[in-house]
Amino acid sequence: MGILDKIKALFVLNKEFNKIKEAKMKSGFRTTEFWLTALTSLLSVYGAVSGLIPQDLALKIVAGIIMVYTIARAIVKFTPTTKDDEVLAKIEAILKEKEILKNSELINK
Known about the structure:
Layout: H1 3-24, H2 32-50, H3 55-78, H4 82-97, H5 105-108
Helix pairs in contact: 2-3
């Protein structure tokens, strides 16, 4: 396999990886968790401004909610699923089809 073939393989892999990345994870603002976090934060700020709850408590609530949301998104992003194996099998099939991956040469290196 020449250098040109290896470069071509990297471009194909990158293209397929980007497709997987886009399909696997929704944008943050498109998730229910985001909107619950935003709503809770806004209600806490409203409660502090209107005097229903102390300002320091509202700040702690908002900070806590944002921290939980951030940790939850990180866990979702880094947790492998059974779908990952399916996706990797599809990538391998595409590479073999395009004759970029011969005899599992790229996988074993």
